[in-house]
Amino acid sequence: MRVRSGEIGEITPQALLLHLEAFHQGITVGLSEHPRAPGRKQSPARNLLERLRDQAHSILRFADTPRHVPFTNNCGERALRPVKTQLKISGCHQSEHGATAWLAVRSYLDSA
């Protein structure tokens, strides 16, 4: 939070290293607790742990560039919620022009 608010410019390398080591150690422990099953089908926990291990750079990108990459995807979810609510209430937009205008306004509001 302090990085995003501008109080500090970046996460210190020592703090980042500490958290990265804990992340990777947690994955290693988890993989040892959920050994690979024979065959192709693995448990959901094993699949998640392997994905976290293999995609660690992408998953932890917010730590490398905290001002440019959001920690969560709540902004994207918040942008979709009004659209789904509008469709649930009315079933559809009355016209393509009206839908385009409504989405343009929503886009401006979300950007602000």
How do you describe this structure in short?
With 112 residues, this protein is mostly helical. It has six helices and no strands.
Q: What is the total tally of β strands?
A: 0
Number of helices: 6
Mean pLDDT: 78
Report Rg.
21 Å
Q: Which percent band covers the strand fraction?
A: under 5%
User: Ends: how far apart?
Assistant: 20 Å
Largest sheet: none
Note the run of SSEs as H and E: HHHHHH
The general outline is flat
pLDDT < 50 runs, ≥5 residues = none
- Work out the count of structural domains: 2
Helix content: 55-70%
* Helix/sheet category: mainly alpha
What does this structure look like?
The chain has two domains: 13-64; 74-111, no CATH class. It has six helices and no strands. The model has no long low-confidence stretch (mean pLDDT 78). By secondary structure, the chain is mainly α. The relative contact order is 0.08. The chain has helices at 13-33, 44-54, 56-59, 61-64, 74-90, 96-111. Helix 1 runs antiparallel to helix 2 and helix 5 runs antiparallel to helix 6.
